[in-house]
Write a structure and sequence with these properties.
single chain, protoporphyrinogen ix oxidase, domain 3, 3 domains, 6-stranded mixed β-sheet, 25 strands, 23% strand, globular, binds flavin-adenine dinucleotide
Length: 504
């Protein structure tokens, strides 16, 4: 009846059974953890399980799409390697850099060649003023010199010192808090584009506690925001220094591929792509995951499960086991956006753009919301082909999903039109690639941390199950790596307990 198969070095017994309407099943000998989702979070969780777990532990990653990496993906445009999704990692948080070193990418870590960004606002490209935290100024001199704000907008800021203290006990939208202290123009022309660069969201809806927690103690204290931000900047100046961001030669998209390689190289890890998990069932010893078409379902047994998928699939899988987790996760919205990567022959450009790129405040009503001059920003792109200049633009943010429906040619034309207005770029690209990221970034709305606390509380009641990924404690790569490490560590601790305590 059963046949013994060898998968990634571990012995896996495949047997046909009929249980709960499922007619085939994979039963794994020894402790077996299944990770659902092969983005950076799921792959990191798998790696940490194998690195820190019992040497007999086996891990299977089930990824619905044809490739691993999720929002991290390296590609080529005009033969030049570029990232199609995330392109840089915050270096002040070391989790993703440590991971890159562990999986053999230490020599490929590279900081940006330039961090000189601009804002395209009020009809001109203006230098990004120094001395701010997520666009909230702590130093008014460079802000005044930049011309980013109107005279009236600039004059409104010092009122912050005179306002009666208002203590925010609860969470508040970043935009509302900053506008109350410093006026709307600071939000619309500074905070909105910077926050939009991370969340592709709306500053008047995004949670201060979840998205800019550094400002929370200032909001709770109720006093001057300018003074509070200046204090943060002074403390940061005394910090360790070094690059704020880091990239990987060949693209940050190489990171999940390297982690997947490390998982498989243990001989105890298997990664299955094109395998969407449709259902999760409790069993006496753990969990059963149902994949495959409804007409021929395939069940996979696991002692423990880690869900490393976005909110909607996590909600669907968890709903039968926790109504609370299902409801709370379903309520989290996502922003979609399109990225247009354009390659130009340098000799076609009157002058190559300078700096790392520019952000565009939505209030200016342009088509693009940012442009990154990839060939300037990343030395490895420039070195790959010095005769080609690569840049990318992004279009769309929360609530603008219609952008994703537009033809490639229209998105390219819009990008070129805005680039012509912003930087005088007037050349035909030699190649382009349009990437649509539907459901790209979870929106951390006001109250997000409370919502996530409810989800975590509900998940903790489910034995040998953990969750991780961008929706929980930060959308950035280091935060995803951190949440995955925590999930794997929790699962290993649970597996170490006697079975009876956590069994169904
Ligand atoms: C365009 C863009 C640019 C970004 N830029 C940066 C940046 O420069 N720096 C930075 O730090 N962060 C950036 N981010 C954010 C960051 O890339 C993501 O938050 C992070 O990669 C998410 O990782 P994840 O593993 O949590 O989720 P994902 O990458 O979404 O991976 C989840 C995986 O689960 C799979 N899946 C879903 N449902 C199922 C199922 N039922 N069964 C099996 N598999 C399933 C999906 O196919 C996917 O591969 C960017 C995001 C986007 C969209």
């Amino acid at each position: 009846m059963g046949r013994l198969d060898r998968v990634a070095g571990s012995h896996v017994r495949m047997m046909r059974v009929r249980r709960c309407g499922v007619d085939s099943s994979t039963v794994v000998e020894g402790r077996h953890v299944v990770v659902v989702g092969g983005g950076i979070a799921g792959l990191t969780a798998a790696w940490v399980l194998l690195r820190d777990g019992d040497p007999a532990l086996t891990v299977t990653v089930l990824e619905g799409s044809p490739r691993v990496g999720g929002k991290l993906h390296a590609t080529t445009v005009a033969g030049v390697p570029v990232d199609e999704g995330a392109e840089s990692m915050l270096a002040r948080r070391t989790e993703s850099i440590d991971l890159a070193r562990e999986v053999g990418l230490a020599d490929d870590l590279q900081p940006p060649s330039t961090a000189t960004a601009s804002l395209w606002t009020r009809g001109a490209l203006r230098p990004m003023p120094r001395g701010h935290v997520m666009g909230v100024p702590g130093d008014l001199e460079p802000l005044a010199a930049s011309g980013v704000l109107s005279t009236a907008g600039l004059a409104r800021i010092p009122l912050d010192h005179a306002l009666a203290p208002h203590r925010y006990e609860d969470d508040v939208a970043v935009g509302r808090y900053v506008a109350e202290r410093m006026g709307h123009e600071v939000v619309d022309r500074l905070v909105e584009p910077l926050l939009g660069g991370v969340y592709a969201g709306n500053a008047y809806e995004i949670s201060l506690a979840a998205a800019v927690p550094q400002l929370l103690p200032i909001a709770r204290g109720g006093g001057s925001l300018v003074t509070g931000v200046r204090g943060l900047l002074d403390r940061a100046a005394q910090g360790p220094g070094g690059p704020v961001f880091m990239g990987i030669a060949g693209g940050v998209g190489r990171l999940p591929v390297a982690v997947a390689g490390a998982v498989v190289a243990t001989g105890r890890g298997e990664i299955r792509t094109r395998t969407t998990v449709r259902e999760l069932e409790r069993t006496a010893t753990g969990w059963r995951l149902v994949t495959g078409p409804t007409s021929a379902p395939v069940a996979i047994e696991a002692d423990a499960v880690i869900l490393a998928v976005p909110a909607a699939p996590a909600a669907r899988l968890l709903r039968p086991h926790s109504a609370v987790a299902g409801v709370e996760l379903s309520a989290i919205e996502y922003a979609g956006m399109a990225l247009v990567t354009l390659a130009f022959r340098r000799s076609d450009l009157a002058a190559a753009p300078s700096g790392s790129g520019f952000l565009v405040p939505p209030v200016d009503g342009r088509r693009i919301k940012a442009s990154t001059f990839a060939s300037n920003k990343w030395g490895w792109i420039d070195r790959a082909d010095p005769d080609t200049f690569v840049l990318r633009t992004s279009l769309g943010r929360a609530g603008e999903e219609a952008v994703l429906q537009r033809e490639d040619a229209d998105l390219v034309a819009d990008s070129l039109a805005d680039l012509r207005d912003a930087i005088g770029l007037d050349a035909e690209p030699i190649d382009h690639k349009v990437t649509r990221w539907g459901g790209g970034l979870p929106q951390y709305a006001v109250g997000h941390l409370g919502r996530i606390a409810c989800v975590r509380d509900a998940v903790e009641r489910l034995p040998r199950l953990a969750v991780c990924g961008a929706v929980y404690q930060g959308v950035g790569i280091p935060a995803c790596v951190a949440s995955a490490t925590e999930a794997a560590t929790d699962v290993l601790a649970e597996l170490a307990k006697p079975l009876a305590r956590s069994a169904h």
